[in-house]
TrEMBL record, chain A:
Organism: Streptomyces alanosinicus
Record protein name field: NADH-quinone oxidoreductase subunit N
EC class: translocase
Subcellular localization(s) per the UniProt record: Cell membrane; Endomembrane system; Membrane
Ranges annotated as spanning the membrane: 30-50, 57-78, 102-120, 155-176, 182-203, 215-239, 270-295, 307-328, 340-359, 366-387, 393-414, 435-455, 475-499, 511-533
Lineage: Bacteria, Bacillati, Actinomycetota, Actinomycetes, Kitasatosporales
Pfam family, one: Proton_antipo_M
Entry's Gene Ontology BP terms: ATP synthesis coupled electron transport
UniProt record similarity statement: Belongs to the complex I subunit 2 family.
Quaternary structure and interacting proteins, as annotated: NDH-1 is composed of 14 different subunits. Subunits NuoA, H, J, K, L, M, N constitute the membrane sector of the complex.
The keyword NAD is annotated on this UniProt entry: yes
HAMAP family registered for this protein in UniProt: NDH1_NuoN_1
From TrEMBL, chain B:
InterPro entries according to UniProt: NADHpl_OxRdtase_5_subgr (IPR018393), ND/Mrp_TM (IPR001750), NU5C-like (IPR003945), Proton_antipo_N (IPR001516)
Gene Ontology molecular function: NADH dehydrogenase (ubiquinone) activity; NADH dehydrogenase activity
GO CC term (a single one): membrane
TM annotation in the entry: 29-50, 87-106, 118-135, 181-202, 214-234, 246-266, 278-299, 315-334, 369-394, 414-437, 466-485, 505-527, 610-628
Record protein name field: NADH-quinone oxidoreductase subunit L
Source organism per UniProt: Streptomyces alanosinicus
Predominant location: membrane
GO biological process: ATP synthesis coupled electron transport; electron transport coupled proton transport
Statement: the UniProt record of this protein carries the keyword Isomerase: no
Amino acid sequence: MSTAAVHSLWTTAADPITKIPAPKIEYGQLSPTLIVLGAALVGVLIEAFLPRKSRYYAQVFVSVVALCAAFAAVVGLASDGYGTTKAHIAAMGAIAVDGPSLFLQGTILLAGLVGLFTFAERRLDPAAHGNRVDSFAAQAASVPGSDSEKAAVKAGFTTTEVFPLLLFAIAGMLVFPSANDLLTLFVALEVFSLPLYLMCALARRKRLMSQEAAVKYFLLGAFASAFTLFGIALLYGYAGSVSYARIAQVVDGTITNIDPALANTMGNDALLLLGSALIVMGLLFKVGAVPFHMWTPDVYQGAPTPVTGFMAAATKVAAFGALLRLLYVVLPGMRWDWRPVMWAVAIITMLGGAIVAITQTDIKRLLAYSSIAHAGFILAGVIATSKDGVSSVLFYLAGYSFVTIGAFAVVTLVRDAGGEATHLSKWAGLGRRSPLVAAVFAVFLLAFAGIPLTSGFAGKFAVFKAAADGGAAPLVVVGVISSAIAAFFYIRVIVLMFFSEPKPEGPTVAVPSPLTMAAIAVGVAVTLVLGVAPQYFLDLASQAGVFVR
Amino acid sequence: MENLIALLIAAPLLGAAVLLTGGRRLDRVGHWIGTLLSAASFVFGLILFVDLLGKNAEHRTLIKHLFSWVPVAGFQADATFRLDQLSMTFVLLITGVGSLIHLYSVGYMEHDERRRRFFGYLNLFLAAMLLLVLADNYLLLYVGWEGVGLASYLLIGFWQHKPSAATAAKKAFLVNRVGDMGLSIAIMLMFTTFGSFAFGPVLSHATQASEGKLTAIGLMLLLAACGKSAQVPLQSWLGDAMEGPTPVSALIHAATMVTAGVYLIVRSGAVFNAAPDAQLAVTVVGAVTLLFGAIVGCAKDDIKKALAGSTMSQIGYMVLAAGLGPIGYVFAIMHLVTHGFFKAGLFLGAGSVMHGMNDEVDMRKYGGLRTYMPVTFITFGLGYLAIIGFPGLSGFFSKDKIIEAAFAKGGTEGWILGGAALLGAAITAFYMTRVMLMTFFGEKRWQPDENGNEPHPHESPRVMRIPMIVLAVGSVFAGGLFSIGDRFLHWLEPVTGHSEGHSPVSAWTVTGATMVCLLVGVGIAWAQYGRKPVPAVAPRGSLLTRAARRDLLQDDFNHVVLVRGGEHLTRSLVYVDHTLVDGVVNGTAAGFGGLSGRLRRLQNGFARSYAVSMFGGAALLVAATLLMRAV
């Protein structure tokens, strides 16, 4: 410690007290997040003070109102021009309010709303002792198979805590893609991850599997978070700041005033490369890119299906948003370093997801691998490093999230005595028994496969076009090849549903309440609208494709 | 006003969607929903028509841009509609006649338990046909074109429990596919030649392209038209398509489907004008088909099949006229409209006869029906007079103009084409008189069937009679309305262009010759079927008659040349496919499958090995990033 520092320590008391200025917070611009967080807190209070009977209705009401209000706030901000001309950095440099943020927040909120509908579904499981129940455990804390679990089931308990948990997760996801410094990024990451870990453990049926999935997700998620945190520390050492803008300046070499305390490490490229690689790794874990994907199938399979659908859609949107901002705002100066690496990741992700999906026999695992392959396709758009790349990824995410939630919602409908019948062999001949459900699922599968007139085609086309224009033509070739491989297993399910004889003791298709019907209908509608007339939404994504720096 | 164009299509499309997804709860009202939406579309059409009439002839084109579908540099696929005089004419015909057929079907399909579905398909048919004629580019037209193909497949095979109906639907679909291929090739050629497939650029720059390319485009368009409009050599589906319910036949033959080919040729007039060889091919196809259909029509004892032959022949007239270029375009469309009236009327009349005769279609088992069903007799009779070209009725004006135009083509071609058209008129008079005499005149020839049920011919309910009466009125007056003062010519001229030919014979001579042909045809028919009683079992007949009964051996020809030849080709292709292609494909699939199975084992369920994989991945990521800098 230098003498000057020691001196200052001893003399602090003698200095006149300077008031710490109150931080300037633009509450209006942060309102989407604040509304959702506030509603989540109200949800906690509901759990504490309302009688058990009325909690479900109160929770659903509060959540729906909050999500709608937050979406209205996003639309309001966008129409005020915060997505384009008035885009700026709010909350003392912590949060960016710009086109990509608002677009992704809107997508997350809508996906969250549709996901909420599937959470609130109470007609699929047979009533337990006269009480309507949803897909979540009667009492999460009771040991599976224990007497206390039986008592909870008999008493007709339901875990209404999922609604505040969902809202907390959504709030974290809203911040994640708009975080403008590394600490906010990390806090947001944890805010949305922890509720997800919990919700994964809450399945009413197959509870052991659900808990196993949650533990795996938690362990690996914590592992990945540790990498991210380490990376953040290294980047701080490199730039002397956690602010995106500041780090970008150091990377570009445009910084003038160097903090003398950090002069030794600042600008040390080894720190930059290590740090950014580790942070990117944490984000790649969240999007489920190979080789950080291995949690995906196990967790998707074990988690309650509504949670899986929500998680598969919204996590991907949030994590890709954060990844885009990191690569486009913080690290554009070193794109010659990260682009080749991301090329490799995108290629093995596309191929790996598509190839392993071929031999899957469980519909939820199949969709998990399909989501891995899709992460690869989206990465191709990320790598384009152009404005088109951003807007194509935004469009892709919007289309993909509704297809995903819709597809998982259909999975909740096909049931047998043991709950959801997720083994593929049980889906044989579904088209004969329930042509409408099978047809809807076929629409989703075709969208996953990227067949024209579905959102999947428009999205894939936009992403590949951006990648090809951005000089990543070989990536597009690999993308098209893996699309062809992927088409095999999507079409195989369609063939199975429509051209196989139904089995005698096959599953039945439950008739859901209007909630799940709405979720599926929204999925189909978005898929077709974005497929048939994508232009308006492409324009919207294109307008929203500029990051504020 | 432009928004109405979209509504025009949206109304029947909505009907199709509601009726096909609405489920059984709509069974009781479904047919009225379908009819109302079709009528709504007609009303929109009328409003637009009045609007167009209020404008100057040059400004009668409305464009409605709906949206662009995935625009890429140089590839512009827009959903844009164009309403001009040509498409307006079609819109009124499609929705007007279509609505009448809807109304008629309410009665005709009353006892069919799948009536709601039937109306859904009818609405879909109208929507697809409207899309076809309103599209502003060939790609959107192609969407409607395929939609028409789909709807016709569904409707022809509506009674799918009958194997013959299912086969007929399949045949219509397959033969149409051949034509569709022509259209898709034509569109591709247009794109490579003009860099666009919108009507504007293609048609206005047609003269700048080389004649070879234009001829290729023209021939491909002709192939497409042959498929949809049942022209030789793709005519074989039309007769079998009679397996569909009779209102479907009326719809296909009068208002939709078969008129699409004529529309395509007239719309693409600029291409054909610049490609005389393609134009010649069009006239040849038209002339051959008009004789072919007429001959087939002479030999059929099935009332619907006789009428089907007649449709083929009349469409042949239109195609012939369309092939004549600017001297014929207007008359092709005029004949199309008048034909829409009388052919719809004739089919609805035939349906009414069948309705009263326990669905019997053999004319040898009819006879003397005029006293049992007077309204049907009168309306059918007026349609009959119109189609043979009785002076003053619709067919007289429109067909006469086509014959004149054929002579006006000039040279040897003019004489041949004009002669064929004249001969066709005589044969038309013969076979239509034959249908008339066998059905409504003479002694009753029906017998009790094996269960002892004797048909009790009776007049059809009012809901079926009204459309027949309206159509009969149209059959009588439409031609005069269009021709006197050349109203139709002036209306359509700005779109299609028009030029007077130099006929080697005067108009009055042509009219006189046509009258003579007509009298000869009617006379021969009277001598054969009016004076002598009609045998209940068909006589063996001459070689030509027997060939004509088998549709002039078209199916035999197709079987020997296409099916056998195709089988040989497929067999050798299958061999190559099995050994070579499948080897590669299965090898690849097995390769990926094996790889998938092996990679799958990495996913062993242990969180520890997942963590190791993540750790390894992170190490690789870091190493690769550092390595990139080092390189």
